[in-house]
Amino acid sequence: MAERKRRGDRGYSTLEVTVVLPVVLLMVMALVQAALYLLASDLAQTAANKGSLAGASWQSSPDVGVERASTWAGTQRLLRGTSVSSEGSNADSVRITVTGEALTLVPGWTLTIRETAEQPVEALP
């Protein structure tokens, strides 16, 4: 009788693997995609910070900040199609905005990232 029960379970492990494995792989891909997005977002924020610091330094200009952020962001492989602007900057502060796309695992899917950093302009007291 025990042998009869074992025969009925034959192939059940294969069925479990074919159902569970795709779900596990999708979960792993989702985790990797989330990590890529967060890393690209951090890179964009770093570029914006570097640009705002460069643009706000003594006798500098927002254009210097844009150039610094563009140069730094251009060296990062996980952040693609970057554009940098100093829109919103004024005489008292420099605002640098970095926009780009995160690397994705799904072809044709784009994840846009937009990060902004603002610094007060250095001045003599």
Major beta-sheet overview: 3 strands, antiparallel
Helical fraction equals 40-55%
The end-to-end span amounts to 94 Å
Total domain units = 1
Counted by DSSP, the helix tally is: 3
Name the beta content range. Answer: 15-25%
Mean pLDDT: 91
Strand numbers in spatial order across the main sheet: 1-2-3
Query: How many whole angstroms does the radius of gyration measure?
Result: 25 Å
Structural class: alpha+beta
Q: Give start-end ranges of low-pLDDT stretches.
A: none
What is the overall shape? Answer: rod-shaped
Succession of helices and strands: HHHEEE
Number of DSSP strand runs: 3
Description:
The chain has 125 residues and is α+β, with helices and mostly antiparallel strands. It has one domain (2-120). It has three helices and three strands. A three-stranded antiparallel β-sheet has the order 1-2-3, covered by helices on one side. A hairpin with an 8-residue loop joins β2 and β3. α2 (12-56) runs antiparallel to α3.
Defining traits:
single chain, three-stranded antiparallel β-sheet, 3 helices, alpha+beta, rod-shaped, 22% strand, 52% helix
Outline the secondary-structure elements.
Elements: H1 2-8, H2 12-56, H3 62-74, E1 79-85, E2 93-102, E3 111-120
Antiparallel strand pairs: 1-2, 2-3
Give a concise summary:
This protein is an alpha+beta fold and 125 residues long. The protein is built from three helices and three strands; from the N terminus they run H-H-H-E-E-E. It has a three-stranded antiparallel beta sheet with strand order 1-2-3, covered by helices on one side.
